[in-house]
Protein backbone atom coordinates (compact mmCIF):
# COMPACT_ATOMS: atom_id res chain seq x y z
CA UNK A 1 0.00 0.00 0.00
CA UNK A 2 1.36 3.38 -1.02
CA UNK A 3 1.34 6.20 1.46
CA UNK A 4 1.40 9.92 0.69
CA UNK A 5 5.10 10.19 1.46
CA UNK A 6 6.02 7.72 -1.30
CA UNK A 7 3.72 9.49 -3.77
CA UNK A 8 5.20 12.86 -2.86
CA UNK A 9 8.79 11.67 -3.25
CA UNK A 10 8.00 10.13 -6.66
CA UNK A 11 6.26 13.36 -7.72
CA UNK A 12 9.20 15.49 -6.58
CA UNK A 13 11.62 13.23 -8.46
CA UNK A 14 9.88 14.15 -11.70
CA UNK A 15 9.39 17.81 -10.80
CA UNK A 16 13.03 18.18 -9.72
CA UNK A 17 14.04 17.91 -13.37
CA UNK A 18 12.81 21.51 -13.74
CA UNK A 19 15.68 22.62 -11.49
CA UNK A 20 17.82 22.73 -14.64
CA UNK A 21 16.39 26.18 -15.28
CA UNK A 22 18.12 27.36 -12.08
CA UNK A 23 21.06 24.97 -11.57
CA UNK A 24 23.22 23.61 -14.40
CA UNK A 25 22.59 19.86 -14.74
CA UNK A 26 19.87 20.16 -12.11
CA UNK A 27 17.72 17.85 -14.23
CA UNK A 28 20.19 15.09 -13.31
CA UNK A 29 21.31 16.17 -9.84
CA UNK A 30 17.83 16.61 -8.32
CA UNK A 31 16.30 13.29 -9.41
CA UNK A 32 19.47 11.33 -8.63
CA UNK A 33 19.69 12.70 -5.08
CA UNK A 34 16.01 12.02 -4.38
CA UNK A 35 16.13 8.58 -6.00
CA UNK A 36 19.34 7.39 -4.31
CA UNK A 37 18.20 8.47 -0.86
CA UNK A 38 14.75 6.85 -1.18
CA UNK A 39 15.07 3.91 -3.61
CA UNK A 40 15.53 1.30 -0.88
CA UNK A 41 12.44 2.46 1.00
CA UNK A 42 9.92 1.88 -1.80
CA UNK A 43 9.72 0.03 -5.11
CA UNK A 44 7.32 2.72 -6.31
CA UNK A 45 9.90 5.47 -5.72
CA UNK A 46 12.61 3.28 -7.25
CA UNK A 47 10.60 2.77 -10.46
CA UNK A 48 9.78 6.46 -10.83
CA UNK A 49 13.37 7.47 -10.12
CA UNK A 50 14.73 5.14 -12.78
CA UNK A 51 12.16 6.38 -15.29
CA UNK A 52 12.96 10.04 -14.63
CA UNK A 53 16.72 9.54 -14.88
CA UNK A 54 16.44 7.34 -17.99
CA UNK A 55 14.24 9.97 -19.64
CA UNK A 56 16.69 12.78 -18.87
CA UNK A 57 19.63 10.78 -20.22
CA UNK A 58 17.60 9.96 -23.35
CA UNK A 59 16.67 13.62 -23.85
CA UNK A 60 20.34 14.60 -23.49
CA UNK A 61 21.29 12.03 -26.10
CA UNK A 62 18.57 13.21 -28.51
CA UNK A 63 19.56 16.86 -28.02
CA UNK A 64 23.21 16.01 -28.69
CA UNK A 65 22.27 14.22 -31.90
CA UNK A 66 20.03 17.10 -33.07
CA UNK A 67 22.72 19.65 -32.22
CA UNK A 68 25.34 17.63 -34.04
CA UNK A 69 23.11 17.61 -37.12
CA UNK A 70 21.91 21.24 -36.91
CA UNK A 71 25.01 23.27 -36.06
CA UNK A 72 27.03 22.38 -39.19
CA UNK A 73 24.19 23.60 -41.44
CA UNK A 74 24.27 27.05 -39.85
CA UNK A 75 28.09 27.18 -39.87
CA UNK A 76 28.24 26.25 -43.56
CA UNK A 77 25.67 28.94 -44.35
CA UNK A 78 27.47 31.67 -42.39
CA UNK A 79 30.93 30.91 -43.81
CA UNK A 80 29.68 30.22 -47.34
CA UNK A 81 30.68 33.61 -48.80
CA UNK A 82 34.02 34.08 -47.03
CA UNK A 83 37.21 33.48 -48.98
CA UNK A 84 39.72 32.37 -46.36
CA UNK A 85 42.67 32.47 -48.75
CA UNK A 86 42.21 36.16 -49.65
CA UNK A 87 40.87 37.45 -46.33
CA UNK A 88 42.10 41.04 -45.69
CA UNK A 89 40.41 41.87 -42.41
CA UNK A 90 37.02 42.77 -41.14
CA UNK A 91 36.40 45.70 -43.47
CA UNK A 92 35.75 43.23 -46.33
CA UNK A 93 33.50 41.03 -44.20
CA UNK A 94 29.82 41.16 -45.03
CA UNK A 95 26.85 38.88 -44.66
CA UNK A 96 24.77 38.33 -47.76
CA UNK A 97 21.07 38.38 -46.97
CA UNK A 98 20.03 37.14 -50.39
CA UNK A 99 18.22 33.95 -51.28
CA UNK A 100 18.17 31.44 -48.39
CA UNK A 101 20.15 28.26 -48.84
CA UNK A 102 18.54 24.80 -48.65
CA UNK A 103 20.99 24.14 -45.81
CA UNK A 104 19.28 26.88 -43.83
CA UNK A 105 15.89 25.24 -44.40
CA UNK A 106 17.20 21.88 -43.19
CA UNK A 107 18.84 23.46 -40.14
CA UNK A 108 15.70 25.48 -39.40
CA UNK A 109 13.56 22.36 -39.69
CA UNK A 110 15.79 20.56 -37.22
CA UNK A 111 15.55 23.61 -34.93
CA UNK A 112 11.75 23.46 -35.07
CA UNK A 113 11.97 19.75 -34.27
CA UNK A 114 14.11 20.61 -31.21
CA UNK A 115 11.52 23.15 -30.01
CA UNK A 116 8.72 20.61 -30.41
CA UNK A 117 10.81 18.07 -28.52
CA UNK A 118 11.30 20.55 -25.68
CA UNK A 119 7.55 21.21 -25.44
CA UNK A 120 6.83 17.47 -25.46
CA UNK A 121 9.44 16.94 -22.76
CA UNK A 122 7.68 19.45 -20.50
CA UNK A 123 4.31 17.77 -21.15
CA UNK A 124 5.74 14.30 -20.39
CA UNK A 125 7.35 15.48 -17.14
CA UNK A 126 4.13 17.10 -15.93
CA UNK A 127 2.14 14.01 -16.90
CA UNK A 128 4.60 11.74 -15.06
CA UNK A 129 4.42 13.88 -11.93
CA UNK A 130 0.61 13.78 -11.99
CA UNK A 131 0.64 10.00 -12.39
CA UNK A 132 3.07 9.68 -9.48
CA UNK A 133 0.87 11.91 -7.35
CA UNK A 134 -2.07 9.61 -8.09
CA UNK A 135 -0.03 6.51 -7.19
CA UNK A 136 0.29 5.16 -10.73
CA UNK A 137 3.40 3.99 -12.52
CA UNK A 138 4.42 6.00 -15.58
CA UNK A 139 6.68 5.06 -18.47
CA UNK A 140 8.04 7.94 -20.50
CA UNK A 141 7.68 7.53 -24.26
CA UNK A 142 10.84 7.29 -26.41
CA UNK A 143 12.99 6.46 -23.38
CA UNK A 144 16.09 4.32 -23.57
CA UNK A 145 16.36 2.21 -20.41
CA UNK A 146 19.90 2.81 -19.19
CA UNK A 147 18.95 1.94 -15.59
CA UNK A 148 16.94 -1.24 -15.27
Automatic annotation (TrEMBL):
Question: Which coarse location class applies to the principal site listed for this UniProt protein?
Answer: membrane
Q: In which compartments does the protein localize?
A: Membrane
Query: What protein name is recorded for this chain?
Result: DUF4870 domain-containing protein
Does the UniProt entry include the keyword Lyase?
no
* Transmembrane regions listed in the UniProt entry: 12-36, 57-82, 102-126
- Specify the superkingdom: Bacteria
The record's keywords, sorted A to Z, are: Membrane, Transmembrane, Transmembrane helix
Instruction: Show the InterPro entries listed in the entry.
Output: MamF_MmsF (IPR019109)
What is the membrane topology here?
Multi-pass membrane protein
Amino acid sequence: MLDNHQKNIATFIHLSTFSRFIIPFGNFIGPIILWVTNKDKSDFVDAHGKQAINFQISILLYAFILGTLTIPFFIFKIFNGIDFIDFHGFHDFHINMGKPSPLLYIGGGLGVLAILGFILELVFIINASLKARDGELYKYPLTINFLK
